[in-house]
Amino acid sequence: MILAAAILFFAFVLDLLLGDPPFRFHPVRLIGFSIEIVEKLLLKLGLSGLVGGGFLLIGVSGLFAGAYLGLRLFLSGLHPWLATIFDLYLVYSCLALTDLLKHATPVAEALDKGDLGQARITLQKIVGRDTSKLDSFGVARGAVESAAENFVDGVLSPLFWYSAGAILGQILRCQAPAAAGVCAILTFKVVSTLDSMVGYRRGHYLLFGRPAARFDDLANFIPARLSLIIFYIGALVSGESAKAGWEIAIRDRLKHLSPNAGHPESFMAGALEIRLGGPTVYQEETVEKPWLGNGNAEAGPDHIRRCCRLIYRSSWLAVLFFTAILLSLQVFLL
Asked: Which candidate among 24, 163, 229, 231 keeps its CA 20 to 30 Å from the CA of 238?
């Protein structure tokens, strides 16, 4: 478990230092490429409903778990440290804190310069809504909402599932608990990528994408609720209103259409003392989302920066928390 904990911690540090690796064979890119191929095959076979969506989920998840274990076995046969380096690279590739901050901060910079057009273009890269007619407040709201939601999907959930897998591996007396953790984090990334690619509520995706969407909701269920505790401590450390964040989250977290996104977003609304949500225009329709937070305080570029600071410090708290759990289990599960 010491090695599993070290892999998690140094993978997080690598993400902070290097950001998302611009590598052609990045695991998430390979997952996306595989999804496209398997999806086309299933649709050609006429499996465009729930059954096809289930096969897509199981098939791609099994493919990557099997490929990982096979390649890891080969590398460990050459030298044990090669397998460890492979594990470290995969966990690092599945974390997205630096990428999250790198996409949100330029929105604030463009708004500071009064360049609303550039702010809209930059925001469009990270959200699904139509940004072409948003005012500066709408752009800032979108950036804060996206960053808060992606904290769970891109940071907290990967940390949680790697740790859960490693713990299960230790309980089952696996030779390498870290490998079980990598299997878990890779499976989470498969589910998350599937949800972003096929988890829509229109056309054949209404049924075909439902298994991926439901499993994504399930995979983020515990981390989304854990984010309230992590954010509360992070808000105390960052000088934000932890008490207001907690109160608003308890009140508004279930107003969101998503069973998970409302938790981090409502906390962020309370902690920054702004309102988030509201009517949101997508490419094909306007969704009447409820408002999260108190009053009519609008988001601005400074709120984006404060949101990013809170997420950065909360991410450190999260990785230290999970690292400490893995290290402590080294003693209790011996």
From this structure: 163
Q: Which two tokens stand for residue 322?
A: 């999970």
- 264 is written with which tokens? 């981090």
Distance from C-alpha of 275 to C-alpha of 291, rounded to nearest angstrom:
6
pLDDT digits (tens, 9 = 90+) for 104-142: 999 999 999 989 999 999 999 888 788 888 889 999 999
166-185: per-residue pLDDT in tens? 999 988 888 889 999 999 99
Do residues 195 and 56 lie in contact, with contact meaning Cβ atoms separated by under 8 Å? no
Q: How far is it, in rounded angstroms, from Cα 127 to Cα 115?
A: 19
Question: Taking Cα atoms as reference points, which of 291, 293, 223 lies closest to residue 260?
Answer: 223
Taking alpha carbons only, the member of 251, 260, 298 closest to residue 277 is 298
Q: How many domains does the chain have?
A: 1
Contacts 24+ apart (CB under 8 A), 78-84: 83/176, 83/179, 84/3, 84/7, 84/178
CA distance 328 to 137: 45
Is 55 in a helix, a strand, or coil?
helix
Please provide residue 286's backbone torsions phi and psi, each rounded to the nearest 5 degrees: -105, 125
Q: Which residue has the higher pLDDT, 296 or 125?
A: 125
pLDDT digits (tens, 9 = 90+) for 232-244: 999 999 999 999 9
